[in-house]
Amino acid sequence: MIFCINDFEGPLDLLLHLVKTAKMDIYEIDTKYIIDEYLKFINSLDKEDLDNASEYLVMASELIHLKSRLLLNLDNKDDEEDDSEYKIKSEEDLKNKLLEYEKYKNITEALKELEEKRSEFFTKIPENYHNYEEEKKSDGFQEDVQILKEAMVSLQKRMFYQKPMTTKITRKEISIEERSSYIRDILKKRKEVTFSSLFTSFSKDLLVATFLAILDMCKNKEVVLKQEQNFSDIYIMRNKNE
């Protein structure tokens, strides 16, 4: 825990304040002047504060030791063993510590500013919008289209394998209305009919016309389609509701 004295958050904060107050560049600080100002500030404090602020006293001892080395003009390597308990052994050490502290202090202030700006915004956890959608009732038409598509593909495969070696092509127009009428006639006699049984012969035109006829009748809700399982026969039935 850092004990604050006069709003200074630790000894380095106090030293940095003294440097800025003296309008010095950290790279060119007058070390002796800063040490004297620090010790003067410490001596001016109430002894009860100092009893709780051990970090400030440790720094004071470091600075007194550094000042004595500067006064004696000792090199960094001199008395290295005796100085092992001290972390600040040169002016360079002191400057580096102040520069590092200033860097972290600036980052902390920037983060605090961002935190204050962020506190002005309120966020809400995203919700699944599907929970608010009205349930769409399917009329079954899309399912009918898929079933017819599968049936048509299956029938095309059968047409390929049953194609005769030689054929005589005769062109005859097959209308959707004719196929619709044909299917209606069958359903008048039978309750249901399979899709494949609607073809006595196979041709592309007949297949397409039948497909479109059933699709149109499904859309108009004249018939309904039923398939018990995948790839099984498709049954076409009259719509009882119509």
The share of residues in helices is 40-55%
The overall number of domains is: 2
Average pLDDT score: 76
Measured between the Cα atoms of the first and last residue, the distance is 84 Å
Kindly provide the radius of gyration, computed on alpha-carbon positions and rounded to a whole number of angstroms.
47 Å
Number of strands: 3
Uncertain regions spanning at least 5 consecutive residues: none
> Which structural class matches the secondary elements?
mainly alpha
Task: Report the oligomer.
Answer: single chain
| Discrete helix count | 8
Shape: rod-shaped
Largest sheet: 3 strands, antiparallel
Give the SSE order as H and E letters. Answer: HHHHHHHEHEE
Which range does the strand content fall in?
under 5%
Write the layout of secondary structure elements.
Elements: H1 11-21, H2 31-43, H3 47-52, H4 54-72, H5 91-118, H6 141-161, H7 176-189, E1 192-194, H8 204-219, E2 223-226, E3 235-238
Antiparallel strand pairs: 1-3, 2-3
Helix pairs in contact: 1-2, 1-5, 2-4, 6-8, 7-8
Brief digest:
Helix content is 53%, strand content 5%. It has 242 residues and is mainly alpha-helical. Strands 1-3-2 form a three-stranded antiparallel sheet, with helices on one face.
Properties at a glance:
242 residues, mainly alpha, Arc Repressor Mutant, subunit A, 2 domains, three-stranded antiparallel β-sheet, 8 helices, 3 strands, 5% strand, rod-shaped
Structural description of this entry:
The chain has 242 residues and is mainly alpha-helical. The protein folds into two domains: 108 residues, no CATH class; 98 residues, Orthogonal Bundle (Arc Repressor Mutant, subunit A). Helices cover 53% and strands 5% of the residues. It has a three-stranded antiparallel sheet, with helices on one face. Strand 2 and strand 3 form a beta hairpin. Helix 2 packs antiparallel against helix 4. The longest helix is centred in the middle third of the chain and has 28 residues. The radius of gyration is 47 Å and the shape is rod-shaped. The mean pLDDT is 76.
